[in-house]
Amino acid sequence: xxxxxxxxxxxxxxxxxxxxxxxxxxxxxxxxxxxxxxxxxxxxxxxxxxxxxxxxxxxxxxxxxxxxxxxxxxxxxxxxxxxxxxxxxxxxxxxxxxxxxxxxxxxxxxxxxxxxxxxxxxxxxxxxxxxxxxxxxxxxxxxxxxxxxxxxxxxxxxxxxxxxxxxxxxxxxxxxxxx
Length: 179
Ligand SMILES: C[S@@+](CC[C@H](N)C(=O)[O-])C[C@H]1O[C@@H](n2cnc3c(N)ncnc32)[C@H](O)[C@@H]1O
Hints:
3 helices, Beta-clip-like, globular, alpha+beta, binds S-adenosylmethionine
């Protein structure tokens, strides 16, 4: 399958990054074609379409229907527990959605973001192979994480933080009611 995709591949952002196709399912990744400085805008997130939640979609808000397909090489950005880019979709105006660097990135480095920073509950949870010292191992989405854990990964979209705060406040109310 990766072979067929590779044969038909037309880079969407040829000056910024490319897809490193690897054999097998879900093994490919996105690689920087140039260096980026911390906080540098890498690209705006444009040309997206709304769709159902899927392994390929990115959550763009708190609603059930707030999922987009990226329709570009950004699809191949893998998850890392120690990410070097952020998918920032917190703006109410989609023209403000963008990808930026969270740390200095060298040419040839893989670009990866922290999936729970956009996803409340992954459609396809997986065992993480990012290799980071701080690896969480099982990636299920923000639903499985505490606020501090989320905040420690560089960037979290606003509606994810709000959902975590609401969940924790509800849990605190419930435990007070039981006591
Ligand atoms: C949107 S795709 C990312 C591109 C994918 N690697 C590919 O080749 O199509 C998301 C899927 O990639 C895989 N993936 C992404 N990051 C991963 C990681 N850190 N460890 C293991 N699998 C990962 C998972 O199967 C996940 O459902």
